[in-house]
Amino acid sequence: MPTAYLSMGSNLGDRERNLANALKLLSGDSLRVIRVSQLYETAPRELLDQPWFLNLAAEIETELSPEELLGKTARVEARLGRQRTVPKGPRSVDIDILLYDDLTVDEPNLTIPHPGMHERRFVLEPLAELAPDLRHPLLEKTIKTLRDETLDQAVRRWPEDRSG
After folding, report:
1. Residues annotated as catalytic (active site), given as ranges
2. The 3-state secondary structure of the chain, one letter per residue
3. What is the domain range of residue 10?
4. Is the entire prediction scored with pTM above 0.90?
5. pLDDT in tens, 94-138
6. Residue 163 resides in a domain
7. Residue 13 maps to which CATH number?
8. What total number of domains does the chain contain?
């Protein structure tokens, strides 16, 4: 079965519950969640006047084609109240397909690898936790290398470690 990696984020309502519910709704006969990263909190990008995000990465196995997987993620987003009223705006849940085996897809509604993933620490940090040696099929660099090279803002694990 093909392996894919998803990036998930939430900045409205109970962010942790939104992400947990999204993972639960994604799972089924044609899709199995293999591993999930820890949660990371990040400041919003581009549209700054909105709540901070919780993000994670998930490794999945799926019988769905990339296009079918995109449809499934959109249905899960809608079921959890995602409304696309403001571009880059607040959202209950956002699910992006980062990688799908070593495929490249360039269609009007779907691009794999996800464009810009190599510039987004909120994507690379949790993905590097799961698959540091995974190679980006176009850039031919590991996820760990891309994370180490990005100039994007820092992320922090959630909940923040306040023990020290």
Report:
1. 82, 91, 94, 96
2. CCEEEEEEEECCCCHHHHHHHHHHHHCECCEEEEEECCEEEECCCCCCCCCCEEEEEEEEEECCCHHHHHHHHHHHHHHCCCCCCCCCCCCCCEEEEEEECCCCEEECCEEECCCCHHHCHHHHHHHHHHCCCCECCCCCCEHHHHHHHCCCCCCEEECCCCCC
3. 3-158
4. yes
5. 999 999 999 999 999 999 999 999 999 999 999 999 999 999 999
6. no
7. 3.30.70.560
8. 1
